[in-house]
Amino acid sequence: MADPQEQPADLPGCPTEGTGLLPAELRAWMLLLAATGAVEQRLRTVVKEKLDVSHDEFLVLCLLAEQPEGGLRMTRVAELLGRPKTRLTYQIACLQHAGLVTRRSVCGDKRGIEVALTDKARRLLTETSGALAETVTEGLARFMGPDQCAAMRGLVPDLAQEPHRG
């Protein structure tokens, strides 16, 4: 097991101390950005291995998976992910080619397109969600200090109780 004080070379130090120039809100924002960046980096590999899709395509699948029934309009997906519509069109085409989403016109709106998960995508997400959740939990626990982990447990209850490894 790695030394608990060892900091991975590609991750900046944890900005938790109030000794710098930034107010607490900006330090918190920087910690959030750094932690999510570290988790995203780890997830890219696991997502490609388990689902054979890109990280951006995975984010589309996650958005669609949270819809109780039906799907989302492509404009809404683009808005939620902060992606250009042209880029999203390409990602949806890749997901459709893989049999993971369907596209259909929105009733009463010739220009509106709604995308939804297929049964295949639902099955894959169900089968891989444990490994993906573990990747997120381990990434956050590794990067965040004990105080940040305690705060994050409100959002991620299974976040490791052990001291941070970052």
TrEMBL record:
<dbReference type="InterPro" id="IPR036388">
    <property type="entry name" value="WH-like_DNA-bd_sf"/>
</dbReference>
<dbReference type="InterPro" id="IPR000835">
    <property type="entry name" value="HTH_MarR-typ"/>
</dbReference>
<protein>
    <recommendedName>
        <fullName>HTH marR-type domain-containing protein</fullName>
    </recommendedName>
</protein>
<dbReference type="InterPro" id="IPR036390">
    <property type="entry name" value="WH_DNA-bd_sf"/>
</dbReference>
<dbReference type="InterPro" id="IPR039422">
    <property type="entry name" value="MarR/SlyA-like"/>
</dbReference>
<feature type="domain" description="HTH marR-type">
    <location>
        <begin position="25"/>
        <end position="161"/>
    </location>
</feature>
